[in-house]
Specification:
By secondary structure, the protein is of the alpha+beta class. The protein is 17% helix and 31% strand. Helix 2 runs parallel beside helix 3 and helix 5 runs parallel beside helix 7.
């Protein structure tokens, strides 16, 4: 059913509205929360730094700049990521108990990954629906010569635990955040609204950043808070929003995440088949602000072609529930060129292949929109924005009989819900 807030109804962004100028310039510098990291660095907008060159943190003291953070799409695999302040050789120790009997490192083309600060270790051949314990380790490399490698201090994370995904699980649950826009404290506040209810993973539905300037922003305004609050033990799954692909550091940002299936993908979570689309920019590619460096139109067309194969797959056809998650919704936007292109490409496919639900963000106006015959034959749920009073947390629970979405505002009040049976 549609949400109950009359106040929200009066401020719905209708499809026939003309695009407002500079709609995205909503955050003032005062509203951005830089946050000082435990390693002693601070995000300063405008700083430029390359991942291979920067050594933030406490000088020569070896330290983690983030806790480990988990990413996964498969029941047999988990990717463990973390960042150290000094170049290192790294590995993960893990097991089904706190006795960490296994050790693994990353190998690429016959060479063990080393002399890097950005670490990714794949744990494979895991058992579905099983709890594992692990810790991350990094050994500093002081000197790396062809025949002389000099090691320094080895540092270890705490021991954390996680549970692998299970495609056969009878009941599943997860949380969704969107449009954080660099407001670091929103992660803790919104995840806290879930209280002690169980959940399997957290989906980040785009525009977690404002625009990307440097590594400090990538770490301190998303990775660090997520790793501290949930991602060391609950995997996070991330799709980019239009703001996440802006700025001089947007291309380097991909180095800090695991995209084992690419930037758009599918995964099976119990009875739910999930399709994730990267909707690109909301303006036309030729807009002067993009300086000829954007091809979102071609990128979306490629995804539409890919969708045809997904919808023909047995996994899609057999799943009790089919859910699409995409940052820009197909409807209820201001009608800019990129938004209309999403509608033109994806709505006919969603209607034809009968998706059960589309979950989006982008508009900063939360709402639950039931199906409209001849327009969108599927419900659309849109999360809120970054400002206090507009922020939302979505909670999804599903079993073989029903899928239920509950949306809370940042005061913890339910402002929308929808059930698919």
């Amino acid at each position: 059913m549609a949400y109950e807030s009359a106040a929200q109804k009066t401020i719905l962004v209708m499809e026939n509205q003309k695009p407002t100028s500079n709609r995205r310039k909503f955050l003032t510098n005062a509203a951005k929360i830089a946050g000082v990291g435990a390693a002693g660095f601070i995000y300063i907008k405008g700083c430029d730094s390359e991942p291979s060159e920067v050594e933030p943190g406490p000088g020569n003291t070896h330290a983690f700049l983030t806790n480990p953070y988990l990413l996964t799409l498969e029941p047999e695999k988990v990717y463990v990521r973390w960042i150290s302040n000094l170049k290192s050789y790294s590995w993960v120790e893990f097991g089904e108990s706190e006795n960490l009997v296994h050790k693994t490192h990353a190998v690429t083309n016959g060479l063990v990954n080393a002399n890097t600060r950005i670490h990714e270790i794949e744990l494979s051949d895991l058992k579905p629906g099983t709890t594992y314990y692990y810790r991350a380790a990094s050994k500093q490399i002081i000197q790396f010569q062809p025949y002389n490698v000099v090691y320094g201090e080895t540092i270890y994370s705490k021991v954390f635990q996680f549970k692998t995904m299970d495609e056969q699980a009878k009941e599943v649950s997860w949380l969704i955040l969107n449009d954080i826009h660099d407001v670091r404290e929103s992660y803790e506040h919104l995840i806290g609204l879930n209280k002690n209810e169980p959940y399997d993973h957290v989906f980040l539905n785009g525009d977690m950043y404002d625009d990307l300037e440097n590594e400090m922003q990538v770490i301190d305004l998303m990775l660090k808070p997520c790793a501290e609050i949930f991602a060391a033990q609950k995997p996070m799954i991330f799709v980019r929003g239009n703001h996440d692909i802006r700025g001089q550091y947007a291309r380097e940002m991909l180095s800090y995440f695991s995209f084992p299936k690419g930037p758009y993908f599918t995964y099976q979570h119990g009875p739910v088949f999930v399709i994730v689309l990267d909707t690109g920019e909301d303006k036309e590619d030729a807009a002067a602000v993009y300086a000829g460096l954007v091809d979102s139109e071609g990128f979306r067309k490629k995804q539409a072609m890919w969708l045809e194969t997904v919808f023909q797959s047995d996994a899609y056809k057999k799943a009790p529930f089919k859910v699409v998650k995409m940052h820009i919704p197909t409807h209820y936007t201001t009608g800019s060129i990129g938004e209309l292109h999403c509608r033109e490409l994806f709505t006919p496919l969603f209607n034809q292949y009968k998706v059960d639900l589309v979950i989006s963000g982008h508009t900063h106006v939360y709402g639950v929109h039931p199906p409209v015959k001849g327009k969108h034959n599927y419900p659309i749920i849109i999360g809120g924005g970054p400002a206090p009073g507009t922020r939302t947390l979505m909670k999804i629970k599903a079993n073989s009989q029903q899928l239920h979405v509950q949306m809370l505002d940042d005061a913890g009040k339910e402002v929308g819900s929808y059930t698919v049976t």
